[in-house]
Automatic annotation (TrEMBL), chain A:
CDD domains the record matches: SCP-x_thiolase
Species this protein is from: Actinoallomurus spadix
Domain Thiolase C-terminal: 241-363
Pfam families to which the protein is assigned, alphabetical: Thiolase_C_1
InterPro entries: Thiolase, Thiolase-like, Thiolase_C_2
UniProt name for this protein: Lipid-transfer protein
Domain of life of the organism encoding this protein: Bacteria
From TrEMBL, chain B:
InterPro entries the record matches: ChsH2_C (IPR002878), ChsH2_Znr (IPR022002), NA-bd_OB-fold (IPR012340), Thioester_dehydratase-like (IPR052513)
PANTHER family: BLR3430 PROTEIN (PTHR34075)
Native source species: Actinoallomurus spadix
Lineage, broadest ranks: Bacteria, Bacillati, Actinomycetota, Actinomycetes, Streptosporangiales
Protein name: OB-fold domain-containing protein
Residues in ChsH2 rubredoxin-like zinc ribbon domain copies: 44-79
Alphabetized SUPFAM superfamilies for the sequence: Nucleic acid-binding proteins
Gene3D superfamilies found in the cross-reference section: 6.10.30.10
């Protein structure tokens, strides 16, 4: 059990409208989401954490706008890997007595501002781009399409199953007023971007912000608790030149440590908020987190998964760099989620960045978990 | 691992021609050129001679690719380039229909190739095969194509 387990709780979540053209600055977006989260929590933050790729509002600007007397504050340079582990960063500050209440946020104009479609994973000295750019490989979609192709080959899954993931996400999102995609469109009409990934297999480029307020469990006794958080990674999709398995993503590295830290098994998870930046990441994480055996993936995806991304996930709700999935985990444990999973007591949420990432388990208090 | 903005020192995009010849092609072919550094220059020099080479560690004897200054297997620092057969199989591929770099005619195929010698190389799948016919496991062999303004770079064609 981790030292901070059960000591911190997510007392409030807040989001702006999600759009493709906010017409607002990242600071305005961050402050609006933060105000919603603070109002919901009824607690004033004395600490702030944010993560970004040089495309968000600076922490101290947010503090000034919110008139927060700022104690501990930090900005983490990073992307999707951060969305789950930042819960651990906040819980550590609270458990250590360095902060009472931590505001966590991510704000971006991911469609109208700086888009991520030409970002690339870079490891080591970065010479790999000499060997890939001249052939036209640039950006995460193509990078993870290469992994996806091999994943389908490994598992025997087909584009039909990717279609089923997207259809499931869209079907969930119909009930989500926040979602950017709320209609179940014709998957096969979606243009191919990089085979096997169509546009519909990729998450929504989004303008918006999401914020969480995390405080000590005694200040918010009814709020979902931060139970376990892990962060890690290793060989896999982030460095395809030198790995036995290019389909390996963060989840295969962090799932074991997560359940060990949590003192739980996959059977304890009631609802899973999986980082679905691409459709194929859903079956890959279902396997890695022990939520579905490989042999059962095809049938499970075909039938749909009521307990996975019930709000539509990043594929359909929008892409606030994964933090909006964490917000939905909190709602599901409070009982006010989209397509609420009845009686959800344990939520898994994950943060992807190739073969590096993070995962967290949140629990509803008073359930003996 | 963070996503990092593309466009950095090891890849250059025209206009930034390293040779006079690049000037002539600049308006015609905006594809990014490799810019060799001390580590990779021998590799690209060999390509210009029509030879595919990869590093081999003098300490442990294992081949290393993509190039590294230090052997990832044993920590050795002497990794000269040696010629390889140029034969391999497609490990994975993608048919790209939306290019994010200039100068590429869609659709085109990118692939990681498992070389006979036990390392993995990257490149395009070219030659007498339709993009939709490329498969994992397809036997391929190297083919050097001219990248205007740079010289020969290796691609892969069905064996």
């Amino acid at each position: 059990m981790q030292g901070f387990s059960g000591k911190a709780a997510v007392a409030g979540v807040g989001m702006t409208d999600l759009s493709r053209h906010s017409g607002r600055t990242e600071l305005q977006l961050a402050v609006e989401a933060a105000r919603h989260a603070i109002d919901e929590a009824g607690q004033r933050p004395d600490a702030i954490l944010g993560y970004h790729l040089g495309d968000s509002a600076p922490v101290i600007h947010v503090a000034r706008e919110l008139r927060i007397e700022l104690g501990w504050h930090n900005e983490i340079y990073g992307g999707g890997t951060q969305c789950a582990s930042i819960l651990g960063d906040a819980a550590m500050l609270i458990d250590a007595g360095l902060a009472r209440t931590v505001l966590v946020y991510r704000a971006l104009n991911g469609r109208s501002g700086r888009r991520m479609n030409t970002l690339s994973l870079k490891l080591g000295e970065g010479v790999e781009e000499q060997f890939t750019h001249p052939y036209g490989l640039a950006g995460p979609v193509q990078q993870f399409a290469l992994a996806a192709q091999r994943y389908l080959h490994h598992t025997g899954l087909t584009e039909e199953h990717l279609c089923a993931v997207v259809r499931g996400s869209r079907t969930h999102a119909v009930a989500n007023p926040r979602a950017l995609r709320r209609e179940v469109e014709d998957y096969w009409a979606s243009p191919m971007v990089a085979s096997p990934l169509r546009r519909a297999d990729c998450c929504q480029e989004t303008d918006g912000a999401c914020a969480l307020v995390i405080t000590s469990a005694d200040r918010a006794p009814a709020a979902p608790r931060v139970h376990a958080v892990v962060r890690g990674g290793g060989p896999g999709a982030s460095a395809m030149d030198r790995t036995d398995d290019v389909t390996r993503i963060f989840s295969s590295h962090v799932a074991g440590p997560l359940f060990a830290a949590a003192g739980m098994t996959p059977a304890d998870v009631d609802v899973a908020l999986l980082y679905d930046a691409y459709s194929w990441l859903v079956p890959r994480q279902l396997e890695d987190f022990g939520l579905c055996a490989r042999a059962d993936l095809a049938a499970t995806l075909h039938d749909g998964l009521a307990t996975v991304n019930p709000h539509g996930g990043l594929l359909s709700e929008g892409y606030v760099h994964g933090l909006n999935n964490v917000a939905e985990a909190v709602r599901q444990l409070r009982g006010d989620g989209v397509n609420q999973v009845p009686g959800a007591e344990v939520a898994l949420c994950t943060g992807f960045g190739g073969s590096y990432g993070s995962a967290a388990i949140l629990v509803r208090p008073g359930t003996g978990r | 691992m963070a996503f990092v903005k593309a466009g950095r020192a090891d890849v250059i995009t025209r206009p930034c021609p390293p040779t006079k010849r690049a000037l002539a092609w600049h308006s015609m072919d905006p594809r990014p050129l490799p810019r060799p550094n001390a580590l990779t220059a021998p590799y690209w020099e060999a390509c210009r001679r029509g030879e595919l080479t990869v590093q081999r560690c003098r300490s442990c004897g294992r081949r290393v690719h993509l190039p590294e200054p230090v052997c990832p297997h044993c920590g050795g620092t002497d990794l000269p380039y040696e010629a390889v057969s140029g034969h391999g199989r497609v490990h994975t591929f993608s048919v790209v229909h939306r290019a994010f770099l200039p100068g590429f005619a869609i659709p085109y195929v990118i692939a990681w190739i498992d070389l006979e010698e036990g390392v993995r190389a990257f490149g395009g799948i070219v030659g007498d095969i339709a993009p939709d016919d490329v498969r994992i496991g397809l036997p391929v062999r190297v083919r050097f194509d001219d990248l205007p303004g740079f010289g020969h770079i290796p691609n892969w064609r069905p064996a």
